[in-house]
Amino acid sequence: MKLSEYARLHGIQYRAAWERFRLGRIPGAYKDEVGTIIVPDESEGAPLRDAAVYARVSDPSKRKTQLVAQRKRVEDWAIANGYRIVVSVAEVGSGVNDKRRRLSALLKREDWGTLIVEHKDRLTRFGFNWFSLFIEAQGRRIIVINEASDDRTDLVQDLIAIIYSFSARLYGQRRSKKAVKMVNMLTEDEPGDSHGA
């Protein structure tokens, strides 16, 4: 329900309801992608308050620093907003890979009602709305903490994964010279990248 409906049901002014939300006193309340404050229906009970946290990076070298930090930020946000973390998953893999083992296992679990990610592209580079539709059809939801994402390096890694994937389909499992040339063009301007020309 919207915050205005929550205020009406509790017999308080909207401003008082907003203040409760701001102070984190409405368990499970969150802002959706357009900034509307959504309050879980209290009749739904705990399931939507039971959260799954998912964090992902593309580059294995970022596993110990960025992946750990990203996971902690999402967990901290979940706890601060009244969620009980049922499962927390961190994974290294491309955002265009639809065979991520840990994400697949997470999506098959039935013990969470809300999936929380830092950015949409942490869950998937493409097809986020389909994820949302399927999850909402199960009576669950996805919360994206931060709609903005500008991780250029991660985007380049995902583009490289696409190039190699299509190259393998066109030219067999070996890396074609054309694919290597395209990857070199992409990475030559990347600071600290060893693939550069």
Automatic annotation (TrEMBL):
Pfam families: Resolvase. Residues 51-181 form the Resolvase/invertase-type recombinase catalytic domain. InterPro entries: Recombinase/Transposase-rel (IPR051491), Resolv_N (IPR006119), Resolvase-like_N_sf (IPR036162), Transpos_IS607 (IPR048046). GO terms for molecular function: DNA binding; DNA strand exchange activity. SUPFAM superfamilies: Resolvase-like. This is IS607 family transposase. It comes from Bifidobacterium jacchi.
